[in-house]
Amino acid sequence: MKKFITTLSLMSCLLFITCDEFGILINEQKSNVNVPIQNGTPTTISINDVTINSESSTTATFSVTLSQISEQTITVDYNTADVSATGGSDYTGIGTTTLTFNPGESIKTINVTIIDDAAYESDETFNITLSVPVNATILDGTGIGTIIDNDATATDLAFTNAVTIGQQVTVTAGSTEFNMIYANNSTSITFPVSTSDSITPTLTNKFFMAETETTNALFAEVYQWAKDNDKFSTDVSDHDGLDGTTAKHGTQELIDLDDPDCRITYDGTFSAETGYENHPVTHVTWYGAIMFTNWLTEMRDGNTDNVAYTLIDEVWDSNDTEYNPDKTGYRLPHTYEWEYSARYRGTDTTNTVTGVVTCVLSGETIVTDFDAMTIKWTKGDSASGATLNTDNESENQKFAVYAGLLTPPTDDAEVKSLGINSKNLLGLYDMSGNVGEWLTNTTSNPLTRSGNWDAADPWASHIIKIGTSNSKPADYSSPSLGFRICRTQ
């Protein structure tokens, strides 16, 4: 008796035709694979990788496929194996089990139960390993299961659950910690701005402000993460080029690494100069501060969903940057957020704005009775936290690092260098000087705030006033200008 087998394909149906000398038998069988049998070519087995986008998903389904349909029964063993995920707590492990392909079948699935827990973990993986194939060979014998954690970190919960102004949240970035202070817990609060206290805007967003200016240690940590995650090109002529002299993005310089007073170095690794780890980072442009906040957010989240700044292209202009303060990513403060934070005194009535102030903003007349307000605000002609105005040199020296000090500084100082009594009533340090601070406005000449160590009188006594603002080109950098970060609740 003579036999042969062939395969015809039509609309995903496989027709198995068996012929012998007595006639023809046609057998139709459904299949999602349309691969003809190749005589003499061995059938191979492969398994795919699976990403479980939330550990609240109950099942991870892996597909095991044959390279071609066979008329033989094919079997292969499989089992799970821990990598960083742990069987029994992160997923339900499977011991050695046999998977069977009957003739004409080309795909089988393996289901692994995922276990949800309440603990924050980094994303974790486990493997499914294929072994002992019968009537086939293994082409890809390892399926990687990646479980994306859906539990908030303790830090995330602290941000979300903060209620009381002044609450501190400690954040870890790599090996560096920094503190964020809950600055505003109201969706509508009116306060004074300008040195004359004559303008009264209303803030409508709850936010946190960094306790100190961004340090060299923290900056190096975040930029090293960016380098490790391919945010830079090693060809310095590229729009995102990096070498020992500069770091760029969108053709814009982020930090002037070549300046001898820059305390950040790059020799294949970003690092802070020894002895300057806790000094504020300087020689950073507005562009460099913006990318720091976006990268810190991505470093935290593992994605860019919550970055506050977008429309950053290979040719980047500050005017084109889109800013979304509703995102919970790290960002630079708005000028009103900065002044609110510099002026806040809680219920302390010393050196505060009093009386009724009437102003017109956006065509609307606003009348504010500051005597009736529970929260009090430092006068705009004073340093942040000061109990007297800036005509009083000895009072200024308690709260600001600037060239008006009895021993003028020749460089920026460590953050918090003036001691615990130099913080303002919100718990923030150096709001009137150590270094100037970039703000978030997306213009050719973004605003800056705060006095700085290099400012001498009479300019010093002007810029350390919390009602004063300045502006610089977005690509400007100097040894007396850095930044402080904030984030929306």
Compose a concise summary of this entry:
The chain has 489 residues and is mainly beta. The protein is built from six helices and 31 strands.
Can you describe what's shown?
By secondary structure, the chain is mainly beta. It has 3 domains: 1-30, no CATH class; 42-147, CalX-beta domain (Immunoglobulin-like, Sandwich), CATH 2.60.40.2030; 157-488, Alpha-Beta Complex (paralog of FGE (formylglycine-generating enzyme)). The chain is 12% helix and 30% strand. It is built from 6 helices and 31 strands. The chain has helices at 154-161, 216-228, 286-301, 335-343, 393-399, 459-463; strands spanning 4-10, 13-20, 23-30, 44-47, 50-52, 59-66, 74-82, 97-101, 107-113, 124-134, 137-140, 142-147, 168-173, 176-184, 189-190, 202-203, 207-210, 247-249, 252-255, 264-266, 270-272, 309-310, 322-323, 330-331, 356-361, 364-369, 436-438, 447-449, 470-471, 481-483, 486-488. It has a 5-stranded mixed beta sheet with strand order 5-12-10-7-8, with no helix packed on it. A 5-stranded antiparallel beta sheet has the order 13-14-17-31-24. β27 (436-438) and β28 (447-449) form a beta hairpin. α2 (216-228) crosses α3 (286-301). The chain is elongated and about 95 Å long. The chain starts with a strand and ends with a strand. The model is unreliable at 1-36 (pLDDT under 50).
Topology of this structure?
Elements: E1 4-10, E2 13-20, E3 23-30, E4 44-47, E5 50-52, E6 59-66, E7 74-82, E8 97-101, E9 107-113, E10 124-134, E11 137-140, E12 142-147, H1 154-161, E13 168-173, E14 176-184, E15 189-190, E16 202-203, E17 207-210, H2 216-228, E18 247-249, E19 252-255, E20 264-266, E21 270-272, H3 286-301, E22 309-310, E23 322-323, E24 330-331, H4 335-343, E25 356-361, E26 364-369, H5 393-399, E27 436-438, E28 447-449, H6 459-463, E29 470-471, E30 481-483, E31 486-488
Parallel strand pairs: 4-11, 5-12, 27-30
Antiparallel strand pairs: 1-2, 2-3, 4-6, 6-9, 7-8, 7-10, 10-12, 13-14, 14-17, 15-16, 17-31, 18-19, 20-21, 22-23, 24-31, 25-26, 27-28, 28-29
